[in-house]
Task: structure prediction
Amino acid sequence: MGPSLWTWAVAVGGEAAALAARPDAPGSLAGELLRVLGVLLGLLGLLVVGLHLARRLRLAPASRPPLIQVLSTHYLATRQALWVVAVGRQRFLLASSPERVELLTALPPGEEPSAGEPGPQEDGP
Result:
């Protein structure tokens, strides 16, 4: 969004507000329509300005990676699976069945996957 759009939005909002301030005849339909149009254009201008400032100042919250990640899943049977789960920098091998989830072993701390390595994977049943 360049400065030309910014200038246009402010100019249109200002002109619409000026038109709304002096209707042709008090209580006329055309005057009320101009007034409503002026208010709508003014609000649209404020919205454009707000979005421009939010994007420029980066007011969006920064996203953090989740604390617990499923790195890999291998299905052994219909409702039985092995899971490699990372909690922070620790990794665990879990077994799940219809009745429970059980910790099998703690794995050596893993490194974060780089951009070239494949991410979490799932093996079919």
Summary: Confidence is low (pLDDT under 50) at residues 113-119. The helical segments are 3-21, 29-57. Residues 3-57 form one domain. The chain has two helices and five strands.
